[in-house]
Amino acid sequence: MSSVAADGPAEVAVDGAKVERDRLIDEVRAALSGLLGAERRLRGRDQHHRQGGLTYAQLRALIALRDGERTAGALAEAANCNPASTTAMLDHLEEAGVIERRRDTRDRRVCLVSLTDEGHRRVEEKLASSQKIWQDRFAATSPPDLLAAARAMRTIAEMLDAH
H-helix or E-strand containing 73? Predict the structure, then answer.
């Protein structure tokens, strides 16, 4: 795909054909709409996860704990959850034996969360499984296209955060 500045020509060459820049932006917008719909459906399936499995929100929180303990608030942000649902999520994860909670010794209002050995094992198992799926799905995608996709998604995230 051709790279063109925001104020570039109205038509660009894509795989040897002329395409209107506005149509390409519409394609990105439609792809984003599809992605957001898929993400909503994924969140909906989170409510019905298999016994013993982890929801995607739980997994995002556990991944954030791989490098060490975090506050409950930081986990809420990492998991894209509100604080009330994060408390319930942490209750469930603690009951499952994958996290431990403790109060900060300097500020008892702060709850610090860390992974247990079982939590580390479960996260690594899930990530390995997920990595295989991503590798399989993108096997035919070139490195430049992967980089372009990552750049485009970061640009979209910045745009959505700015509104």
Answer: helix 72-79
- Give the span between the Cα atoms of 149 and 88, in whole angstroms: 35
Beta strands 111-115 and 70-71: pairing type?
Answer: antiparallel
Return d(Cα 55, Cα 108) in angstroms, integer. 29
pTM over 0.90: no
Task: Kindly calculate the radius of gyration of the chain based on its CA atoms and give it in whole angstroms.
Answer: 20
User: In 68-136, where do the E strands start and end?
Assistant: 70-71, 99-103, 111-115
Per-residue pLDDT of the chain (163 residues; tens, 9 = 90+): 444 555 555 776 777 667 788 888 888 889 888 888 888 787 767 654 544 578 888 888 999 999 899 999 899 988 888 888 899 999 999 999 999 999 988 998 888 999 999 999 999 998 998 899 999 999 999 999 999 999 999 999 899 889 8
Long-range contacts of 90-98 (CB under 8 A, 24+ apart): 90/61, 92/58, 93/58, 93/61, 93/62, 93/119, 96/52, 98/62, 98/122
